[in-house]
Amino acid sequence: MFKKELREIWKPALLRFSVVLAFPVFLEVTTARTATESGSRNLSLILMAFPVVMIWIANFLGVTAFKAEFEDRALEYWLTFPGGISRRLARKMASRITLVLLLSFSYVALCIFAGSQIPGPLNPALICPCSFLFFINGSLCGFLGNRNLRMVANVVTFFSVVVLSLGLSRFILPLFPEGNQLSAAVGSISALLIVIGIMGGTFLISARQFDLRSPELFQKRVRAFSLPLILALDIAALVFRYAGGRT
Amino acid sequence: MISIQDISFRYDKTKVYDGFSLHIPEGQSCLISGINGVGKSTLLRLMAGVLRPDQGKIIYNPKLGPAPRKKIGFISDRLSLYESLTVAQGIELHQSAFGVDSFNDSLLKHLKIDENQRIKSLSIGQRTIYHLSLVLSARPEILLIDEIIHSIDPYLRKFFLDQLIRLLSERRMTIVTVNVNFHDIENMIDRVILLKSGRIAVDEGIDDLKDKVKRVIAVQPPEDLPILSTGGSPDRPDYYIYPFREEFRRRIDGEIIDMNLTEIVAAFIGGEYV
Amino acid sequence: MDKNEIKYLNFNIDAKSAVPVFKQVKQAIKRFIASGYLVQGDKLMSIRDMAFRHNIHPNTIVKVYSQLEIEGYIMSKPGSGYFVQTEAGKVENEKEILIKDAAQDFLNKARQLGYSLDETIRILTALEASLSSEKAKGDRE
């Protein structure tokens, strides 16, 4: 299964990677090495672009995890594969998780190379877990059979992470007297965990039997319950964040 | 061997099975039939593990080990496969998933299937034979076949049956097939099960069934004859008798005719026994 | 004839018949032995080929062959296959069973149609005569 999944993901992943990093890399490569200023600026650009592309690809890898099963009508066939649920899911996700890990290690390597130039929130200790969490979040959305719902859920959860972390920041900021940026990252991770908790919980209840009925059940519950709940939390977070003036 | 123990299963709001049990011993060749929509395919999917019962359990021969699905071959009427893969890639995937290292591609060559063409471009006949080849390459001990025979031409049907017979002469397999159309496979069946409303209405060996269901053509059949259903024309009706007993022969003034499996099942369905 | 060449047995399974499939196959093989088509030492079709021929489960053929072996009509040579093994007495017995069956059917039909025994015998004799003369004509030509 590794080979099959790899075949599905390497081209789109490479494409996204290239699209985001093409420009900064191009600048870095073509700029004369004489002026360290422009060199470091280009490196900063790359350092800022890399997390973006990492998170984007991680999310993409998650959301497309079950694309073949749904669009190729292969779900029933996949369910005939031997092994328990965990084993089958692991074999399926193996190549995707590997790619996320690969990107993480690459980012760490890049940061080491950049030395002391890493701005706080781009610290790999935060970005790497973040991208892994976005992968998990994407996968949960990926288990929705309906293509439109899948897209909507992905957008809503993505957007909710931003909104919820804004709401959470009022709590979190006081915990980090030094850095606003670090708290922002922690806020994002916490928000992600909340969203994953809601979607993940729904998934676990629906996919308990893990059979042909699971995706349909999950879909129903996401539509009726999870997404409305997440949106409600978003509104509450926004109200909470901006009520009583800005902090 | 498959042992379905007291299962309940619900699809949406409909309870399809409630406290249903069925035991199929090793090596038996079993036909499951009934009216359309009664839940035959659902039962087969439950046996294949593609659907899981809400209550109760399904046990397989313990010698299949902890991962019984490795030795279960399931060919569904949906012919579910990863359509974007090529034929060769599909074979590779199946082999890695089921732990098989060899694949007999003589069938594919015979049907002139190019291993580089995409699975979605195969015709139904080709796809059926391809799916069958994949499933049989894992040398299953339990084979579950759902209704695919009638959608392919007679030549491919014979082809399919020949592959099945070839495998049967090499190893002991438990076969469960769901059909409404079975003249080709009649002679391969040991046991006939007819379902009605989530229950087993008829469960007999095929030879017993042929002894017990007869077509009687008589002007005035005896009153107490257990008539399953009627057919023929109004002025010369056929009476389908179940269960037939040899002693009836003395009392019937008319012809007593044997029936083939298709006619027998039709008689059950016609009588709404099933 | 090469002893390893297999004689083709042409018979059909009557799907409608209440006679079980294995019995039909068994009776067919016995008929071929009784009629002299299959003789001592002839090799039978393999189990698989026999199963292919009629879309029958190979286990059924296994049952047929093992019963025929027990009854002494055939014998198995491991690695080579199944071979016909006839005794004159057995063949005669089988022939008698077959002819009696055919006669039974004929007599039943005659009775159903209302013919007396004398009339039935007259029909038989006339039929036999015309058959012989046709045969004689055929021999001359």
Question: Which key features would you list for this structure?
Answer:
heterotrimer; A: 247 residues; mainly alpha; 2 domains; C: 141 residues; Arc Repressor Mutant, subunit A; two-stranded antiparallel sheet; 6% strand
In which range does the helix fraction of chain A lie?
A: over 70%
Content-based structural category of chain A: mainly alpha
Task: Supply the number of helical segments of chain B.
Answer: 8
Shape of chain B: globular
- Computed CA radius of gyration of chain B, to the nearest angstrom: 21 Å
Structural class of the helices, strands and pairings of chain B?
A: alpha/beta
| Strands ordered across the widest β-sheet of chain B | 5-6-7-3-8-9
Mean pLDDT over the residues of chain A: 85
Which blocks of ≥5 consecutive residues of chain A have pLDDT under 50? none
In percent terms, what proportion of residues of chain A is strand?
Answer: under 5%
Mean pLDDT of chain B: 90
Instruction: Tell me the β content of chain B.
Output: 25-35%
Count of distinct structural domains of chain B? 2
Q: How many domains is the backbone of chain A divided into? A: 2
Largest sheet of chain B: 6 strands, mixed
Which chains have the largest interface? A-B, 23 and 30 residues
Order of helices and strands of chain B: EEEHEEHHHEHEEEHEEEHEH
Anisotropy-based shape of chain A: globular
Q: How would you describe the overall organization of this protein?
A:
The complex is a heterotrimer of chains A (247), B (274) and C (141). The longest helix of chain A has 30 residues, at 85-114. Chain A has two domains: 1-119; 143-247, no CATH class. Chain A is mainly α. Chain A contains nine helices and no strands. The model of chain A has no long low-confidence stretch (mean pLDDT 85). With 274 residues, chain B is α/β, with parallel strands linked by helices. Chain B has two domains: 2-189, 3-Layer(aba) Sandwich (Rossmann fold), CATH 3.40.50; 206-270, no CATH class. Helices cover 28% and strands 30% of the residues of chain B. Chain B contains eight helices and 13 strands. In chain B, helix 2 runs parallel beside helix 4. The two termini of chain B are 26 Å apart. Chain C has 141 residues and is mainly α. Chain C has two domains: 21-86, Orthogonal Bundle (Arc Repressor Mutant, subunit A); 90-140. A two-stranded antiparallel sheet of chain C has the order 1-2. Chain C is globular, with a radius of gyration of 19 Å. Chain C starts with 20 loop residues before the first helix and ends with a helix. The chains are: A mainly alpha (247), B alpha/beta (274), C mainly alpha (141). The interface between B and C is medium-sized, with 27 and 18 residues.
